[in-house]
Amino acid sequence: MSALDGRRVLLVVSGGIAAYKSAILVRRLRQAGARVDVVMTASAEKLVGASTFHALSGRPVHTNLWTEPLAHVELGREADLAIVAPATANILARMAHGLADDMATSTLLAAACPILVCPAMNLRMWENVATRENMESLKARGLHVLGPEDGELAEGESGLGRMSEPDMIISVASRLLRGESRLEGRRVVVTAGPTLAPIDPVRFVSNRSSGRMGMALASSAWLRGADVVLIAGPTSVEPPYGPRLIRVETSQEMGTVLEKELQDASVLIMAAAVSDFFVPDPPAEKIKRQDRDVLDLSLKAGPDLLADTRAMRVERQVYTLGFALETADALENARLKLEAKGLDMVAVNEAGRPDRGFEAETNQVTLIDASGVVEEIPLLPKADVAERMLDRLEDRLS
Known about the structure:
Blueprint: E1 8-13, H1 19-31, E2 35-40, H2 42-45, H3 50-57, E3 61-62, H4 71-78, E4 81-87, H5 89-96, H6 103-110, E5 115-119, H7 123-127, H8 129-140, E6 144-145, E7 149-152, E8 158-162, H9 166-177, E9 187-192, E10 197-198, E11 204-205, H10 212-223, E12 227-232, E13 244-247, H11 251-261, E14 267-270, E15 277-278, E16 300-301, H12 305-308, H13 310-316, E17 319-326, H14 330-340, E18 345-350, E19 362-369, E20 374-381, H15 382-396
Parallel strand pairs: 1-2, 1-4, 2-3, 4-5, 5-6, 9-12, 9-14, 12-13, 14-17, 17-18
Antiparallel strand pairs: 7-8, 10-11, 15-16, 18-19, 19-20
């Protein structure tokens, strides 16, 4: 279930050209199950009509403080989260100084819920010392800030000033409304995707991992309030917003990064499909086919990242969830891996099924923990599987 499902979100739209994105944001919020009340400034109405937000939210749009004298108090009191998007330099200044001279600023001043501001303005307005001081004042009061982003601006210029995309805002809103979690504030390291073993400068040995499962786990952990580091091999899947992404290619590179990031980690989720073998000393030049019909490769066992980090994980009490991809005797082989690699929990995947595992958008796993408890998670979209896996992991965290 979405963290936004059944929640009341107050969306304040101020007069920036990015107000068109706010219409998309309303649709995304409603799709996530939220009830959305929209408040618009007079300037915003000149850019996007109130009727647009009325149609998208299914609720009245609030624009005039004098025709609804108590609405600002009711809206501020009832909201679970307030989002200001776009947040222009003007409304940020008025918020910073506690002004309440229209429906938008009065409602925000009456709001007792978390407030997320999404700045959008010309880059020179954003860089102006007055705007910077206003932002620091709002942050000091506990307001949450997302953006602005770097990119093309309305005036034809480029730089910091773009409003964050609606999906990014949804992610941060979900994190703010998630509720209590044992992962909140903990450092969680997640590995995802395949690694490559070069044969020559243009060829490599790898596997079919898409990285979807690891990225879903990283996203779920971040939404629960964790400080997430996502170490990802080469994938075509878009990484989630939130986790700090570190890209690697080879198993050796992943091992080096993993050892560094585990220094202050509480949890390790080893979802990457690390190449078991590599070509020692691959040639610097491309291997020519010429007239040969056979190319003999000598492969050497690559690093075993779980085994290599075992002593550090034990010493630092890093709760570790690993994966076991099996084709036969799945549960028995997974139990052996759990013990041999010093895991706290192992998730067993069945290889060779088109609806689960590598490249699929769904998955089915069986969890085995160190005490021997076995639990099967049914076939579900990988995001839902990730949620259930982290529920179980949280249950076991002390």
